[in-house]
Amino acid sequence: MHIDVNSAFLSWSALKLLKEGSSIDLRNEIAVVSGEEVKRHGIVVAASIPAKKIGIKSPMNLADARRIYKDVIVTHQDREFYRECSKNMMRLIKYLFPTYEQFSIDECFVDYTEMRKLYGPEVKFAHKLKDEIYKRFGFTVNVGIGNNKLLAKMASDFEKPNKVHTLYSYEIKEKMHSLPVRDLFMAGKAACAKLESLGIKTIGDLANYDENKLVAILKSQGKMLHEYANGIDDSPVENKYDERKGIGFSKTLEDDIEDKTILYSELSNFSKKISQELKKRGMYARTIVVTLRYTSFKTYNHQIKLDNNTNLEEEIFKNAKLAFNKLWNLEPVRLVGLRVTDMSNNNDIQLSLFDENHKVITDKELDNIIDNINKEFGSGTVFKGYNNMKKEKIEK
Ligand SMILES: [Mg+2]
Predict the structure, then answer these.
(1) Which of 212, 217, 231, 355 to pair with 141, CA 20 to 30 A apart?
(2) What is the CB neighbour count within 10 angstroms for residue 61?
């Protein structure tokens, strides 16, 4: 199933205004949400369904929207409130489905395969789910049901709002192939222009087109779109949204800083917070990313992949310093950030003879073993190798 909030930002803004005592529900009006930042000023970021019906859509200049309808109601976005609405819904989904995948702030996939035994036939349950979301949180969703994520996602995009749609494999021809090719998931503007130049107008045209010719023109994207047009997608529902983003902190410094000790102390502070957050979530991270932005506003990252997952503050800080020293060009720093990614909930450790933190035997024991092997199989069978790292480290 794919669960998708209908005109999320607009619905959530409507909800906020209602909560504040407004008598108008933006969802029923010709209304838009506009960006709050200066550089996005005057851009429509979401439009109500009545607004969409008369041709107002995002991203469109507010001026153009007003040209279409002079009295369009404009409200500013409130990211904080949106995150809260999103969290509430995702919490319910997580509670109901052990296997879910948050896809964006207002969309997620759930794997219903095993849940059918518990919750019964999918269509009936999907209706219950969307009604429950509305009852609890006050906004509507579409639920798409399909044999894989692609089909479920395509299905949830059918008629809106507040609907359940199915797109089973046997319904592909009937329900999907007549749609314009731009409606296919992942078919961007550039790709569609190329497809249309080949005479491909509908998803059905694409499905029946020669795959080799598509690959010649669009490379791997051609293959993927051809598969999608045929309803093929074997990607699993994976809970990776949080992991993808990882956990991170950054700080814009009050002055441009050239003093390494100050930058180190920020990294130390971030390491502590990240470690606490990992422990709270019961997770471990494998990759450490340091971000620096210079006075020139140029921003750079350096990442270090660890040998083992960790949630330890000192381990994170140690590697943050390593990454920082690789990255820093001694220019004044405007912003410093630290993030861990590649997260999982296991801390299985790759045991190593040589890793200082996870040594399984002492150097003395190692020497004894080497001696014994060489006694038994002839001298020089096994010997120590050294590399030129600062601390002489036995390689192999
Ligand atoms: Mg949506």
Answers:
(1) 231
(2) 13
